[in-house]
Amino acid sequence: MSFEEDIWFEETTPFTPAPELEQPEPELEETLSKKSGRKKKAIWEHFESIGPYKSGHTGAKCLYCLKTYKNAKPTDLEDHIANQCPKVTADIKTTYLRI
Ligand SMILES: [Zn+2]
């Protein structure tokens, strides 16, 4: 018989708990976003930061279509991912369309 029914059981592998306990989030993370308290900077997962320029602005480069912004405002970046980027995956796009 070549029926490999065992395959079905692979998904039910018993979960082995990680030996480490969950640590509280380090305070170093995202000190700049304290105002909103939310991870507003998640948009930066999709951009590479450039600069800062002499003007004081921070630039951004889209990791997907490589478009660059000289003054990277989070709202612009989100708009780019949601409405403009030709290469971003539908999954990511949907995330930002909801905002
Ligand atoms: Zn893009």
Could you explain how this protein is built, in words?
The structure is a single chain. The chain has 99 residues and is an alpha+beta fold. The protein has a domain at 38-99. It is 19% helix and 10% strand. The chain has a 3-stranded antiparallel β-sheet with strand order 1-2-3, with no helix packed on it. A hairpin with an 8-residue loop joins strand 1 and strand 2. Helix 1 (74-84) crosses helix 2 (90-97). The termini are far apart. The model is unreliable at 33-37 (pLDDT under 50). The site of zinc ion (ZN) has 8 residues, from loops. This is BED-type domain-containing protein. InterPro entries: Znf_BED. Keywords: Metal-binding, Zinc, Zinc-finger.
Present the secondary structure layout.
Elements: E1 47-50, E2 59-62, E3 68-69, H1 74-84, H2 90-97
Antiparallel strand pairs: 1-2, 2-3
Helix pairs in contact: 1-2
Zinc ion (ZN) is lined by residues 62, 64-65, 67, 80, 85, 87-88.
Question: Taking strands numbered 1, 2, ... along the chain, how are they ordered across the largest sheet?
Answer: 1-2-3
What composes the largest sheet? 3 strands, antiparallel
Alpha carbon gyration radius: 20 Å
Order of helices and strands: EEEHH
Sum up the overall morphology in one term.
Answer: extended
Low-confidence parts: 33-37
Please state roughly what percent of the residues sit in beta strands, choosing from under 5%, 5-15%, 15-25%, 25-35%, 35-45% or over 45%.
5-15%
Helix content: 10-25%
**Ligand roster:** zinc ion
- The overall strand count is 3
Terminal CA distance reads: 53 Å
Instruction: Please state the average pLDDT score.
Output: 78
What is the oligomer described by this structure?
Answer: single chain
**Count of individual helical segments:** 2
Keywords: Metal-binding, Zinc, Zinc-finger
Organism: Diversispora epigaea
GO molecular function: DNA binding; zinc ion binding
Protein name: BED-type domain-containing protein
